[in-house]
User: Fold this.
Amino acid sequence: MSKCLYYTMALLLLCAFLPVVADASDHIAPGITANIVVEPGINERVMNIPLNTGGSVRAVFGSPARPQATIIMFPGGTGDIGLGQDGRIRRGDNFVVRTREAWNRRGYAVLILDTVGHRNLRGQRSSAHYAHLVEDIIAFVHRQGSGPVFLLGTSQGAIAAVNGAAHAAPGDIAGVVLTESVSVIGGSGETVFSAHPEKVQAPVLVVANHDDRCNVAPPQDAKKIGAAMTGSLEVTVLMVTGGTTRSEKNCGSLTPHGYFGIEAEVITRVITWLDAKIRTSLVR
Assistant:
């Protein structure tokens, strides 16, 4: 066999095994898989959080040195942000993903979940199974000792936040924030009303953009969503305006639905609410 033919066959064999090696990175033991310094004073870690049902879910956790609270964030769409073991994110346009450092700079730790095995979460976020996953995540964050815990979901992710809050034990979370919530049945077959909003006991902030043109998240439903939180003693509806459009679809991340262009204003107004909840909890 000539040397040229030998090296050609060896290269072909190596290429054949590359997909297997890449896939194996999704089956790793729980723990920290990467440490990434985002900017001075902020550290980002990729973590594989163990689940009581077995296996783990990958998440990116960013935090300032002394966080005053932690926000567990649920992205919209399929929920799959394409988070790699090395910290790279293949789909980072979603509001909660692209703004995570801004929350860190304002003193909040942020944990953003990917999906288990990069599966599609559409139609699954209001399920009992997913509620148990959120319970595991809340317990994990409490063990990190990074202050009170809030849930924040955007678009389809708001369904996950409502489901998690509805099943949270009293005192487990300090509040829940819903941004551009899916309130009209679409392709996923579920809405925030599918996730038992009446069982949510924590304080609730519902944020809606007057200029949102997403057909499954009409801003006029914000008051209806708030009214459905009959178990909570404190529900606030916050209306914002503005944003520009770069995505092709009205429900895309780079549109008013994803607060594109008005991120700083929205974050400031949400943090004002979060800060008030923390002060209230300290008084108690």
